[in-house]
Amino acid sequence: MPRKADRGAEEGEPKSNLDYKLLGGVAVVILYLAFGYGAQILCNVIGVAYPAYISMKAIETRTKEDDTRWLTYWVTFGVLSVVEHFSFFLVQIIPFYFLLKCIFHIWCMAPIENNGSTIMFTKVIQPYFKKYEKVADDFISETTDKLKQTAGEVISKVKST
């Protein structure tokens, strides 16, 4: 007669208490993201903690592919964070906003070829970047020159007093 754990595996049930605990933990996180106070913080932790850890590991490898993958994630994450900041009203009008945002983050970090960050980057972010790259470069150059000039003037005044 098969052991209890083996019978569960044959019937398509979870194999151990660990499976139940994992499913319970996922359910709690989903419910908290849907209804909990501070769901924004939990969503940001999920969207930052694992990608930051894996990005650190990617930096230590010699391959370019993992670096590109995680840089693409961070560019997408950054752009969406800025957009979200200026469209904060979405939080109030979209039901389960942070749950949906968290699902989107998970899709963006999914270990598949065309994950969310790859699609967002190639279809949305990169075309806008290419369109406005020259304008941005000119703005950054002019601003840097003005900052250097101002810093030089401030340092000269401080030295002369």
UniProtKB/TrEMBL annotation:
Membrane-topology annotation of the record: Multi-pass membrane protein
UniProt keyword NADP, yes or no: no
GO cellular component terms, semicolon-separated: membrane
Keywords: Membrane, Receptor, Transmembrane, Transmembrane helix
Localization per record: Membrane
Similarity annotation: Belongs to the DP1 family.
Name assigned to this protein: Receptor expression-enhancing protein
